[in-house]
Automatic annotation (TrEMBL):
EC primary class: oxidoreductase
Alphabetical list of Pfam families matching this protein: adh_short_C2
InterPro entries: KR_dom, NAD(P)-bd_dom_sf, Sc_DH/Rdtase_CS, SDR, SDR_fam
Keywords: Oxidoreductase
PANTHER family: 3-OXOACYL-(ACYL-CARRIER-PROTEIN) REDUCTASE, 3-OXOACYL-[ACYL-CARRIER-PROTEIN] REDUCTASE FABG
Alphabetized GO MF terms: 3-oxoacyl-[acyl-carrier-protein] reductase (NADPH) activity
Domain Ketoreductase, first and last residues per copy: 7-185
Name of the protein in question: 3-oxoacyl-[acyl-carrier protein] reductase
Protein species of origin: Kibdelosporangium banguiense
Similarity annotation: Belongs to the short-chain dehydrogenases/reductases (SDR) family.
SUPFAM superfamilies, per database record: NAD(P)-binding Rossmann-fold domains
Enzyme Commission code: 1.1.1.100
């Protein structure tokens, strides 16, 4: 029997990057997966890959900052697959700029997607989890939570998610719900490719520079995050809650 047989997972921002890898890994471990992204069509390739590997998944279009859409997505997971056991708050955006150039809109967008999005999705999911006295929530933080030039908005959101994680762990622990965060370092995705573009270098150059100053001498791949999350949502980690695990090859900043 696979670790997540019979479980149902909702992964936000799962059309690509880390979210797609997490969705694929949880499905490979036996979970039925709701692949949530802004655009339902964008989630279809993730679903197709899961189905091709023998797993079960559906794509759902929803904006995590919209309470009605997120609640409908969580309820749909339970209707389609019979429960909602696992939530991975992964949807994310960056709007980098130095403080004096950072617009109010870019502040609101980043805080909105990461913090309000995780709040709304967790609130929608906990209804199912508390009722069944079982659940696992994982929030995507970042090494940028510790401070990163040009990312005041993103850094604040990612450190905010660590406090959010600890508080939900306290509130939901008595109901059988574990809540943890994963804080990735440099992971090769479109998000880091966009960072390279802003710096005027290629994604490969940025990855090479990052690898050089990372103790394990490589950058991370989405699968590195997916395997950590697979552990945190399994029953192997049921005494771990309220934690933030840095998955960064040993490089904090
Ligand atoms: P990515 O490749 O940019 O993927 C993010 C996904 O989230 C996209 O599919 C995006 O959809 C979706 N999304 C954005 N806003 C959304 C919303 N309002 N509602 C629903 N979906 C939304 O990013 P990634 O690199 O895989 O990062 C995933 C998570 O890990 C993020 O929370 C990120 O902050 C965190 N993280 C990443 C790294 C890294 O090095 N890559 C490091 C630390 C933390 P669209 O394509 O339609 O915008």
């Amino acid at each position: 029997m696979a670790a997540l047989d019979g479980r149902v997972a909702l992964v936000t921002g799962a059309a690509r990057g880390i979210g797609a890898a997490v969705a694929g890994r949880l499905a490979a471990d036996g979970a039925a997966v709701v692949v949530l992204d802004l655009d339902e069509a964008a989630g279809k390739p993730t679903v197709a890959a899961i189905e091709a590997a023998g797993g079960r998944a559906i794509a759902v279009g929803a904006d995590v900052t919209d309470a009605a859409q997120v609640t409908a997505a969580a309820d749909r997971a339970a209707q389609e697959f019979g429960s909602l056991d696992i939530l991975v708050n992964n949807a994310g955006v960056t709007r980098d700029n130095l403080l004096f150039k950072l617009s109010e809109q870019d502040w609101d967008t980043v805080i909105g997607v990461h913090l309000k999005g995780a709040f709304l999705a967790s609130k929608a999911a906990q209804k199912h989890m508390v009722a069944q006295k079982y659940g696992k929530i994982v929030n995507l933080s970042s090494v940028s939570a510790l401070g990163n030039r040009g990312q005041a908005n993103y850094s604040a959101a990612k450190m905010g998610l660590q406090g959010f994680t600890r508080t939900l762990a306290i509130e939901l622990g008595p109901f059988g719900v574990n809540v943890n965060a994963v804080a990735p370092g440099f992971i090769v995705t479109e998000m880091t490719a966009a960072t390279a573009e802003r710096l005027g270098i290629t994604p490969d150059e940025l990855a090479a520079r990052s690898a050089e100053i990372t103790p394990v001498r490589r950058v991370g791949q989405p699968a590195d995050i997916a395997s950590t999350i697979a552990f945190l949502v399994s029953d192997e980690s049921s005494f771990i809650t309220g934690q933030t695990i840095y998955v960064d090859g040993g490089r904090k900043l």
